[in-house]
Amino acid sequence: MDLEVLKEQVRAITTDIIERSAIKAGQIFVLGLSSSEVAGGIIGKNSSTEIGEAIVGVVLRETLKRSIHLAVQGCEHLNRALVIEEVVAEQKDLEIVNVLPSLHAGGSGQLAAFKFMENPVEVEELVAHAGLDIGDTSIGMHVKRVQVPLIPIQRELGGAHVTALASRPRLIGGARAKYKEDPIRKF
């Protein structure tokens, strides 16, 4: 796999989703990643440190440019806990848990987050405003309601299926209510 091509594809997908999701500075963007799927394998069976670092490095740079906080979801062996900067966990009053990810418990994305973030910690749960799911890792549990699916400009990355979610406030009030224009661009 050509990692430079992969990085450029990830940058394009990430930029697309950030821009169309209407996520704002200070909000959380969650990344779910199966490097096994990107490599053409089965989720959890073919983890790649190099692929994890390539993808997380790009997504982290793109979120930091916009002052958006990145959270990287782990696998089911860590109950889908998330790596995030400690200062963000403290600011948002998230419960920090004591675990260190490994390649097969947390995954390559979490290992990369621990490598690239300034002071990473694990939290059990959070509520993100948008996110990117590379390899069908089920990020929906971490994105606030109401979730809006976004179709990325590229639906596959290597062998992995790519999906994304944004969120918007609930529409309340019924037939007589008026609403602000939805800033999310689905297409």
TrEMBL record:
What Pfam families has UniProt attached to this entry?
DUF436
Tell me the domain of life: Bacteria
InterPro entries with a match to the protein in the record? Antibiotic_NAT-like, DUF436
Q: What family does this belong to?
A: Belongs to the UPF0340 family.
Stated name of the protein = UPF0340 protein ACFOSE_04725
